[in-house]
From TrEMBL:
It is found in: Membrane. It comes from Bradyrhizobium jicamae. InterPro entries: Ig_E-set, IRK_C, K_chnl_dom, K_chnl_inward-rec_Kir, K_chnl_inward-rec_Kir_cyto. Residues 141-292 form the Inward rectifier potassium channel C-terminal domain. This is Potassium transporter. The chain crosses the membrane at residues 46-68, 109-131.
Length: 293
């Protein structure tokens, strides 16, 4: 059915899901309808820049209202707009140095509205900053490439990860999925995910490094696939790790996704653990290295 005249088609949006770029069409979400999520997910430079822009716009608007009045503020020489802007900044931030103050009903009314706006906006900004700082996060380092090699006599998919903070993540749990494209019996293309069982999916205390193993046997969705088969099925991997951070006293999560061209067949990870006279040593400079074998 044709749309009504004048209707605008929603714009296409580019989003990133892990390492994959997705273009979405036919869905339009108002900027203000999800402003809280946008504030929480924006980068720190974008968040601070946006806050500064809102601060400038608010003060510029209220300074304009003062400027329209008939000398609403005392001690403003020649009614200069820049002085009203300074007074607006003092009022919105509740600083109130005292050399300038409202001297008319109009000035008091605008100042009262601005004070309410300042209190409300500062409370909102404090809450957002606290939420961004207090949001739990895990500093986990994931290997650049999954590897498929023989382990304990069986073909095995392996992914190495490490705790960059070197604190204790208790009851760490890992979950691994594979995403594959296919065609149904009706000829409809689809993309489906499968859970990949791990030899050991839990670690009582993740402090250093951990390698997760998935055996590629007859029951595995990866069984019989080589590099060309992975490409044909547009295979992707998703690894999720969660656990209890003893320092933050909160549950933390981390995830990593891989595309089929990042999987290295016939490779294994370089050993980074060794025992010396000084004790156990870990060489993280070789964390991402692999060798054939």
């Amino acid at each position: 059915m044709a749309g009504r005249a004048g209707d605008r088609a929603p714009k296409a949006r580019r989003i990133r899901l892990g390492n994959r770029e997705v273009v979405t069409e036919g869905l339009e979400l108002s900027f203000w309808a999800d402003i809280s999520h946008r504030c929480m997910t924006a980068s720190w430079p974008a968040f601070i820049g946006g806050a500064a822009l809102v601060f400038i716009v608010f003060n510029g608007f209220f300074a304009l209202l003062y400027w329209f009045g008939d000398q609403p503020i005392s001690n403003v020489p020649r009614g200069a707009y820049i002085d009203y802007l300074y007074f607006s900044i003092e009022t919105l931030s509740t600083a109130g140095y005292g050399d300038m103050h409202p001297q008319s009903h109009y000035g008091h009314f605008i100042a009262a509205v601005e004070l309410f706006t300042g209190i409300f906006s500062m409370s909102l900004m404090t809450g957002l900053i606290f939420a961004r700082f207090s949001r739990p996060s895990a500093r986990l380092l994931f290997a650049d490439n999954p590897v498929i090699s023989t382990h304990e006599g069986r073909q095995t998919l392996m992914i190495r990860l490490a705790n960059e903070r070197h604190n204790i993540i208790a009851n760490a749990t890992a979950q691994l999925w594979v995403f594959k494209s296919g065609v149904s019996k009706e000829g409809v293309p689809y993309r489906r995910f499968y859970d990949l069982p791990l030899i050991r999916s839990q670690s009582p205390a993740l402090a250093l490094s951990w390698t997760v193993f998935h055996v590629i046997d007859e029951a595995s969705p990866l069984h019989g696939l080589d590099a060309a088969g992975l490409k044909a099925a547009n295979v992707g991997l998703g690894l999720m790790v969660s656990g209890y951070d003893d320092v933050a006293a909160q549950t933390v999560h981390a995830r990593k996704s891989y595309e089929h061209d990042q999987i290295r067949f016939g490779h294994r990870y370089v050993e980074i653990l060794r025992v010396t006279e000084d004790g156990l040593r870990i060489d993280y400079s070789r964390f991402h290295e692999t060798v054939e074998g």
